Amino acid sequence: VKAEVLAVGTEILLGEIVDSNSAFIAARLPALGIRLYRMTQLGDNRDRLVAHLRAALADNDLVVTTGGLGPTEDDVTREAVAEAFGEVPFVDPELEAALRAWFGRRNMPMPERNVKQAWRIASAQTVPNPRGTAPGWWVEKDGRIVVCLPGPPAEMGPMWEHEVAPRLAALATEVIITRTLKTVGIGEGRVDEMLGELLKNVNPTIGVYARGDGIHIRLGARAATAGQAQDLIVPVETQIRQLMGNALWGTDAETLQDAVMTCLQGRTLAVVEDSTSGGHLAALLSGTGHAAWRGGEVWSDGPVSIEAARARSAAARVRWGAHVGIGIAASRDGVFHVAIGDESGTECHTWTFPQGMAALRQRVSTTALSLLRRRYS
Amino acid sequence: VKAEVLAVGTEILLGEIVDSNSAFIAARLPALGIRLYRMTQLGDNRDRLVAHLRAALADNDLVVTTGGLGPTEDDVTREAVAEAFGEVPFVDPELEAALRAWFGRRNMPMPERNVKQAWRIASAQTVPNPRGTAPGWWVEKDGRIVVCLPGPPAEMGPMWEHEVAPRLAALATEVIITRTLKTVGIGEGRVDEMLGELLKNVNPTIGVYARGDGIHIRLGARAATAGQAQDLIVPVETQIRQLMGNALWGTDAETLQDAVMTCLQGRTLAVVEDSTSGGHLAALLSGTGHAAWRGGEVWSDGPVSIEAARARSAAARVRWGAHVGIGIAASRDGVFHVAIGDESGTECHTWTFPQGMAALRQRVSTTALSLLRRRYS
Q1: Which of A176, A183, B72, B190 keeps 20 to 30 A from A365, CA to CA?
Q2: For residue B68, which of B54, B78, B81, B53 has the smallest C-alpha distance?
Q3: Backbone phi, then psi, for B135, in 5-degree steps?
Q4: At how many degrees (to 10) do helices B256-263 and B280-287 cross?
């Protein structure tokens, strides 16, 4: 099965929002044996949408769209899909009743404009949307499938998981399994050289990618069943693990913070950050849900110095009764100090990373986590 | 000037990373008078890249690519652009010297694989990359421009701002100015109805979009100069402001947290969250850099109740000496309590939002901010 994913919305083309829906869907296609060769974002323009849909349907078995199912005049996905299939939308009485009930339960009058969200075409079945007013469409015609989902991720995601994915799984004839091995401390070109001839491997394929938390190596195997695909991956993964040694810290969805919490071996951890790092590290650590996490504070001012980081590390241990305290002192122009202390002593480090606030916060957190891993693993 | 933006990387098509580069570039094109009709993501496949580049160059004056400039074998953007223009890459001696110097300054041996990053074609000028090893290309040929930038956002962004944008500005013949008016408390269909005939306006165009922080109304005007475009926007914006009244809380890049800090009128603010909201609200507030922000804490356990939220609101005021304290108590299954207290009393509210941790954190923060706005503005 060959697929294209298409996100619709002028706000995407204006850079006002980042299209995360396409990545959400893309991440779930390999397990369904579906190959994705292209993702596209288009604006709220009916003619361009129709032309793109026709071209995509000529090249693919499946097209998944997100967005353009709202009640407003510039939501034109329904019209475009109808025209691409040569059909005319009509108001589905059941959908209209459900829509009016949705507003009724919220004691809100339904704007007449919303009736558009009860439209359907003859080839379309409805994909229920329990969290919003826009139902999706599953259209099957001429050996092609078009799935239309709404743009808000909190509506689209559950509709994908509960309605669309099971139907696509029933059509699958093969499976693609991927495995990501995550390293830190060596560069992309060097990892490439270490892998050498392995990079020419065909099944699994092997790719190398630079990330915020180090260099990732991705294996992708294709087979009739997940078990057979796993069997293809295991010997290659073993080879790569031997090549990479201690630089390899985790796999797949594992995060550096998960890996760090595991290597603390029963020690508890607390953090005091300043307003520059602004709770970023605490949010990462609390997100692990790990029992070793004690808590964090954000201090809103103070000097940016090694001494300040050291004092915050000590304060973190005292305030939260933790074995290990991390103290952070960072300035907006990119100088940052990280202190890690426990009963055996405190280490302090200083870096400069003048790449803007968002990148700086990520870098400070990754650096603190890497230091923890080095100290305790 | 008509443009397409193209992001290259199999990891994007696997949903492993979200392509934020295209949105970064898209957001900066209107001010340069450049119209963007399509964004595309493709994998690390040379033949498909070449075919897509040729089609994009037939339809557009400008194509901007990100990604695929790394040193590894599956980085093929250079090869693809060369082939699309019928040219052959060679090693540029100046680029090679600069690359070797880059590694030399870091006391690292340069992997021979990296020589690829010193490639150039005859029609390409180099776009310097002070933060990484991959220089970009500015290719001009046959009345078309292709700009190739590396994938890491911390490298791509400054190259765009310092090198590419100024060159494109020199070519601009018109300007597109956008203005976003942000509302909260009314639905998308209702906003659409209130705007009525205004939605048919041609210059500026008017669009309506549902967002996490409410419904946005976007005006887009096109003119020879920024001043003329502004003159087109002002009377329409005035009309919309009258229609929307108090529901309108901000414009353009203004965030709800900025709007809230401003309406506090000298009161100071502190927050105690639990591990479910995990510092999300504190990170938003500290990110404003506003003097009214005192600080925040993340408490790692405790009951999820109105009483807990109330106690945390009081603790926030005491611990940070703030006029206003926000206390949050949220459970992972989506029930959350928000308490806002000051010397005149404390209000507590409870909601349910069972849409997963990430959506819950955003919802808790937005809810707390909306309550603050209602109480103090």
Answers
A1: B72
A2: B78
A3: -70, 155
A4: 70
Q: What is the largest CA-CA distance in chain A?
A: 74
Amino acid found at B201: N
Band of the pLDDT at B213, cuts 50, 70, 90? confident
Please tell me the distance from the alpha carbon of residue A229 to that of residue B245, in angstroms, as a whole number. Answer: 59
Residues pairing with B292 in the sheet:
none
Answer whether A219's CB lies under 8 Å from A236's CB.
yes
Is the confidence metric ipTM above 0.85 for this complex? no
Q: Using CB atoms, pick whichever of A16, A24, A113 lies closest to residue B189.
A: A113
Q: Any idea of the CA torsion for B267, B273, B276, B278, to the nearest 10 degrees?
A: 80
By Cβ distance, the residue of A18, A41, A295 closest to B299 is A295
Q: Report the 3 state secondary structure along chain B.
A: CEEEEEEECHHHHCCCCCCCHHHHHHHHCHHHCCEEEEEEEECCCHHHHHHHHHHHHHHCCEEEEECCCCCCCCCCHHHHHHHHCCCCCEECHHHHHHHHHHHHHCCCCCCHHHHHHHEECCCEEEECCCCCCCCEEEEEECCEEEEEECCCHHHHHHHHHHHHHHHHHHHCCCEEEEEEEEECCCCHHHHHHHHHHHHHCCCCEEEEEEECCEEEEEEEEEECCHHHHHHHHHHHHHHHHHHHHHHEEEECCCCHHHHHHHHCCCCCEEEEEECCCCCHHHHHHHHCCCCCEEEEEEECCCCCCHHHHHHHHHHHHHHHCCCEEEEEEECCCCEEEEEEEECCEEEEEEEECCCCHHHHHHHHHHHHHHHHHHHHC
Q: Which residues of A touch B295 (CB under 8 A)?
A: 275, 297-300
CA distance A268 to A148: 47
Q: Which residue of A has its CA nearest to B178?
A: A14
Q: What tens digit of pLDDT does each residue of A111-146 get?
A: 888 899 999 999 999 999 988 888 999 999 999 999
Residues in chain B closer than 8 A to A51 (CB atoms): none
CB B180 within 8 A of CB B217: yes
Kindly determine whether residue B23 and residue A28, on different chains, have CB atoms separated by under 8 Å: no
Residue A357 has what DSSP assignment?
H
User: CA torsion angle for A202, A203, A207, A213 (degrees, to 10)?
Assistant: -170
8 Å CB contact of B42 and A37? yes
Q: In the predicted model, what is the mean pLDDT of chain A? A: 92
* Highest mean pLDDT (candidates A340-354, B155-169, B208-222): B155-169
Distance of CA B87 to the CA centre of its chain: 35
Smallest Cβ distance to A295: which of B108, B294, B300? B300
Q: Where are the alpha helices (DSSP H) in A86-185?
A: 93-105, 153-159, 165-171
Task: List chain A residues with CB under 8 Å of B112.
Answer: 193
Closest in A14, A29, A299 to B26, CB measured:
A14
Helix (H) or strand (E) segment spanning residue A124 = strand A124-127
Rg (CA), chain B: 25
Measured between beta carbons, which residues in chain A are less than 8 angstroms from residue B177? none
On chain A, the residues whose CB falls within 8 A of the CB of B156 are none
Q: What is the pTM of this model?
A: 0.74
SS3 A329: strand
CA–CA separation, A66 vs A148, rounded Å? 6
> Nearest-CA residue of chain B relative to A151?
B210
Mean pLDDT, chain B, rounded, equals 92
Interface size A-B, in CB pairs within 8 Å, comes to 253
Tokens describing residue A175: 């499976």
Phi, psi of B67, rounded to the nearest 5 degrees: 95, 165
Q: H-helix or E-strand containing A13?
A: helix A10-13
Residue A272 has pLDDT above 80, yes or no: yes
User: Token pair of B100, please?
Assistant: 């070797």
Which chain B residues contact residue A180 at CB under 8 A?
16
